[in-house]
Amino acid sequence: MVRLPGLLQTELGYIILLFALFVVPRILQRWHLPTAITSLGLGMLAGMGLGVSDADPTLHLLSTFGIVALFLFAGLEVDLHELRTGARVLAQHLGLRVVLLALGMLGAVAAFDLEVRPAVLMALALLTPSTGFILDSLPSFGLTPEESFWVKSKAIATELLALAVLFVVLQSTSLGRLGLASVALVAIIAVLPPAFRLFAVRVAPWAPKSEFAFLLMMAVVASYATRQLGVYYLVGAFMVGIAARRFRESLPAMASERMLHAVEVFASVFAPFYFFVAGTELRREDFSVQSVLLGVAFAAALVPARLAAVVLHRRAAFRERPMHSLRVAVPMLPTLVFTLVIAGILRDSFLLPQYLFGALIVYTLLNTVVPGLLLRTPAPTFDAPELPDVEPTPKG
């Protein structure tokens, strides 16, 4: 969403940008700084220091691919069978999340005199973990398979709840609008299975290795459709990922480990552009002393509260020791993508005061670096996906 001034408008400028986004974040990882944060920081430097501010269609397109790939990856990771395995605990977890969202909404209304709809969105921005970011980061945290299962399951369940709440809040200006939007969303969901079935029967047998291109294009089209509904790109991409997962038996390649890896690699290439572009939209005025102090206060209050909620729940559900529960709670702290998206919606559609917008950005920057520091593991990265296991080719 930028038009790069001077040198940065040239091909050389884009080469410099590619170098910065793919090399500089790797250098800074030794200090446990997530590459997403570095990309966002580079965008802030470009916006505040170089005057980058207008729309650049190339970067806008690359940014869109980035956010679509992140939520497509998250949707592909949704395994309904796995979720049913821990259904009782996940239901308790979601009940606790609803309570936290309600408390967050009431707090936003009381403290900042917000109306109910923006207050709910602010609670979502503060409390919703970024599932795609977290799932991509899991291998770096050194968790056991059981711990990874619970982090993954709880993050996915929370995101499903958050997307549902986001849809209702954004479309609830009237019952008519909510009804029409719901019908449109159901229609989009209903179209996906026949589209996948048609591809599996009519295209895939005669077009081998075309599954990735089809999946990506479906995600882009569905994302555009949900964007037109006013619920941003992420809902459509997430739905396509879930739909593709359901076709694992009739079209195994669509949700195979290789496909997950391919989408992860695609996200690793384009996600930095999303964070860079998001950074260019930030301004010096967003980071007043009031904003920074309030963002730090959010982190000081909510990070321990969110950790405590998971620890206490797991203590009640499993009689688990707090130190073990923290290994599940800490990886669920980052809210980066969800906070950036909702903060932008609040600023553009609800005229959120600038100091609150800046406070949300400071808060998400802080909670995103916490896991790497507490678990003392390499920082989460989107540009170093694990290679899939490949069976050796038989000789002869």
Written account of the structure:
This protein is mainly alpha-helical and 396 residues long. It has a single domain, classed as Na+/H+ antiporter like fold. The chain is 73% helix and 0% strand. The chain contains 16 helices and no strands. It has helices at 11-28, 35-49, 57-76, 80-85, 87-112, 116-127, 131-137, 145-171, 175-203, 211-228, 232-246, 257-280, 289-318, 322-329, 336-349, 354-375. It is globular and about 60 Å long. It starts with 10 loop residues before the first helix and ends in a 21-residue tail after the last helix.
Order of helices and strands: HHHHHHHHHHHHHHHH
- Strand content is under 5%
Oligomer description = single chain
Helical proportion, percent range:
over 70%
Give unreliable regions as ranges: 383-396
Assign the CATH class. Mainly Alpha
Looking at the structure, what is the overall shape? globular
Radius of gyration: 21 Å
Report the sheet with the most strands, covering strand number, pairing sense and barrel closure.
none
> Could you say how many structural domains there are in total?
1
Q: Please count the helical segments.
A: 16
What is the overall pLDDT average? 85
First and last CA, distance = 54 Å
**CATH architecture descriptor:** Up-down Bundle
CATH names the topology as Na+/H+ antiporter like fold
Strand tally: 0
Q: Which class do the helix and strand fractions yield?
A: mainly alpha
Summarize the structure.
This protein has 396 residues and is an all-alpha fold. It has helices at 11-28, 35-49, 57-76, 80-85, 87-112, 116-127, 131-137, 145-171, 175-203, 211-228, 232-246, 257-280, 289-318, 322-329, 336-349, 354-375. The longest helix is centred in the C-terminal third of the chain and has 30 residues, at 289-318.
